[in-house]
Amino acid sequence: MLTKARELKGNDVTAEVLKDAVRYKGIIYPFSKALKRNVGYNSKDLYKLSWNDSKLLWADRLKSASLINTTPVTQKNMQTVTDYNYPRTLKDGSIIAIKSSYKQTDRIVSIKNGIEKTLTTVGIAPPDQFFGIGNRFLTWIEMEMNPRRAQQTFSNIVIYDLNKKTKTRFTSKSRYFSPVASPDGNTIAAINVTPIKSVIFTY
């Protein structure tokens, strides 16, 4: 909507709309009335105009786009909201992903030929969980609370060995992010955040 408003009235119109809105020039729906005053459309009409223009633009782009046929790997669960995040493909053709749902704790699953297997569960993780694959190792972060200081948390590296089927907490009371094992599996690279907020790349 604001992009359309700038197209109609220039880049400075946003400041004028916000200035009128915060001054309540129009007690009821001040933002919508500020749009009407400065752009010529209230919020509802500007939304419709923006949507119609965007729909035409997307339709034109779709005509010139080359579509690729896709095949769903997982089946849609109609009873439970389920997400598969950060899918990675292994050499054997299987897919590794983090599975999240309201009924189960997060887990790392393997999918091959339509068959899904749970490899391991994932503990308390950051909001944007990340896991890396290097050689035979999966690496990710799990959060740890300080039992005496509720506001102090740690982010530890966890490793899963695909060959041995074992899960190991690699660090304790640390602050690492985005770990990934090297192609030969001998080292792990991660971002280490120190208490003074500096960032160090650790190998």
User: CATH architecture of the largest domain, please?
Assistant: 7 Propeller
Q: For the record, what CATH class of the largest domain applies?
A: Mainly Beta
The Rg value, from CA coordinates, equals 25 Å
Spatial order of strands in the largest sheet: 1-2-3-4
Helical content class:
10-25%
Please provide a written account of the structure.
- With 203 residues, the protein is α+β, with helices and mostly antiparallel strands.
- It is built from 4 helices and 11 strands; from the N terminus they run ααααβββββββββββ.
- The protein has 2 domains: 2-64, no CATH class; 82-202, Peptidase/esterase 'gauge' domain (Methylamine Dehydrogenase, Chain H).
- The chain has helices at 2-9, 13-22, 30-38, 43-64; strands at residues 82-89, 95-101, 107-112, 115-121, 131-134, 137-145, 153-161, 166-169, 176-181, 188-193, 199-202.
- The radius of gyration is 25 Å and the shape is extended.
- The two termini are 46 Å apart.
Task: Give a brief description.
The chain is α+β, with helices and mostly antiparallel strands and 203 residues long. Helix content is 24%, strand content 34%.
Keywords, please?
single chain, 203 residues, alpha+beta, Methylamine Dehydrogenase, Chain H, 2 domains, 4-stranded antiparallel beta sheet, 34% strand
Question: Helix and strand layout, with pairings?
Answer:
Elements: H1 2-9, H2 13-22, H3 30-38, H4 43-64, E1 82-89, E2 95-101, E3 107-112, E4 115-121, E5 131-134, E6 137-145, E7 153-161, E8 166-169, E9 176-181, E10 188-193, E11 199-202
Antiparallel strand pairs: 1-2, 2-3, 3-4, 5-6, 6-7, 7-8, 9-10, 10-11
